[in-house]
Amino acid sequence: MSKTILIVDDSFSLRKTLAIALRDAGYAVEEASDGKDGLSKLDGRKYNLIISDVNMPNMDGISFVKAAKQLPNYRFTPVIMLTTESDPTKIQAGKDAGVRAWVLKPFQPPALLDAVAKLVIA
């Protein structure tokens, strides 16, 4: 059974590009358009990894991660932030919230897939 990754990003084109790269690498993919939508997908389904943007409408990525980590089923689900945000205080806030890796956009699919392979859980 393939591992499932949740992509949370308000950019439709980025979600599609990322989903193609991940599916080509053998992962199943779910998509959410912002943090609120992402939380609605955390309904007991098993995700082996979450990839989230930081700057989104309705609920930003760091608030989303904090909320996700409060849910017992997702406390240990690794999170990669995929963002244009390089502010050290944001990166630290992400780490404090439970983010495991911080990848800057525009991303290189091989580098991102390498990070995914290192962090994805069984």
UniProtKB/TrEMBL annotation:
Domain Response regulatory residues, every copy: 4-120
Keyword annotations from UniProtKB, A to Z: Phosphoprotein
UniProt keyword Phosphoprotein present: yes
Residues with 4-aspartylphosphate modification: 53
InterPro entries on file: Bact_response_regulator, CheY-like_superfamily, Sig_transdc_resp-reg_receiver
Ranges in coiled-coil conformation: none
UniProt cross-references to PROSITE patterns, sorted A to Z: RESPONSE_REGULATORY (PS50110)
SMART domains per record: REC
Bilayer-crossing regions: none
Cross-referenced Pfam families: Response_reg
PANTHER family associated with the record: CHEMOTAXIS TWO-COMPONENT RESPONSE REGULATOR, STRESS RESPONSE REGULATOR PROTEIN 1
Designated name of the protein: Response regulator
